[in-house]
Amino acid sequence: MTTFIFGHKNPDTDTVCSSIALSYLKNELGGKTVPKVLGNINEETKFVLNYFNIPVPNYLNDVRVRIKNIKYDKKAYINENSSINEAFKLMQKQNITAIPLIDEKKKLTGYVTLKEIARYLINGNKEMVSTTLDNIVETLNAKIIVKNDDIIDGNILIAGLQDKTFQKEVDLSTNDILIVGDRYKILEYAISCKVKLIILPLNIELDKKILSKAERNNVNIIASAFNSYQIANKIILSNFIKSINTNKNPITVHNDDYFTDFKTMTHKVNHTNYPIINNKDECLGLIRLTGPNEYEKQKVILVDHNNLAQSVDGIEEADILEIIDHHNLGAIGTTVPINFRSKPVGCTSTMIYDMFIENKVTIPKNIAGIMLSAILSDTLLLTSPTTTEDDRFVAVKLASIAKVDIDKYGTEMLKAASSIAGKSVEELIKMDFKSFVVGSKNLGIGQIMTMDFEGIKEKITEFVNKLNEMANTNYSNVAIFVTDIIKNGSYVIYDEKSEDIIAESFGIKNIYQGVFLPKLVSRKKQILPSILNTIDTEN
pLDDT (tens digit, 9 = 90+) per residue, 257-267? Predict the structure, then answer.
């Protein structure tokens, strides 16, 4: 199974570039991984990936277990023109109590249960056959002696009377199927009447004259290994399975449906078996409520986060193999020990550089470029308080490999990131927004990097209204920090009920929406710890 590598929701440059770089490293070491993103990338990240000619990773909606991940009864279906006998044998082989019916294009056309087969054997019309000659041959363990038709429709008769009595009392027609042994007078009579089919018990052989006459009169002849009594009892099992299909629109499960939703649905619908279909309405098999329903969890590696609220939907249903992060420890738990790499550096890519060196894997120019970009982004061109000597050392090494000037390239990158033109208030809030669960509180802290605070200030009422709305629905407290790296500080906008928390957290005497906080640029090292400290003090 392919392992997905991804960062947090509302992906920033570190999240995206670290996922790509780590995936490259893992694959070079023999792994099978794919980088993913959990949302739309920002302008800065677009600039970086375009600059180094690397495609944007595909979007990952969730890692919840789906029906297609379950070990269901694949190919547990049968063509609707197969015999009842063949359907029953397949059900026995698959150990299932029902079977979906399909047409020639694998489209689901119905569903037959063992109960319906049993009901047919007890109450069904045992004198009529409507099927193919091949189905009859398969059911009766027979061989074809003379074949004139593919489809056989007719009434079943057994030649149990004396020759004269039979010819006198029984009027044969082209709609009759006759079970008869080596009784040549009755055979001659049946062929003269042009019956649809003659079935010979015990593999009886006929002389060539009789066979030639049958061919001329379009009479089909087969010879079965069974005796007359067995043939009479078994032949109705050669009928089309679709002839007893009373469930032409069964309840189905889509292969992309979530397994948890399936289990919830089964509590409302008292069924045991459910056909599985795909986007083309093709039947893929059968899932049983009482089956083993084993599945393999999606394998994932997390970068740049270790908090449930920031990770992909359904993370609790995934198999977390590894976490590489430079943030405080969050609330992700695992059922088994994993590789967890944590270090107080300014960027995840700094840690991934160490992993390249440890494993003696050469870093390509474009991978070095995006790793450098991640470091410059997270450390604000190596000026943030989160910047460490490790970050500076690694940045110089990566710049040399990528053949770029740190200051010149970094300034270009941040200019691309600072543009807010054409973006709505909601888009700006979500650009780099993270959730943090602290006890019973759910905090939302966003950060906007721009040198154009005037453009934000014009819409400050809209920002406050949106933050109030968020605080009244999903969050206890919400704040947006608009960081200007030239001025080396941040403007803060907050929901109205969070005013006291913001004021106390940052020692603001005269607080107002859009107040400037000098030297406050790092969410991880300055903003979040200050707010958490205030909340802890209140509690």
Answer: 998 888 888 88
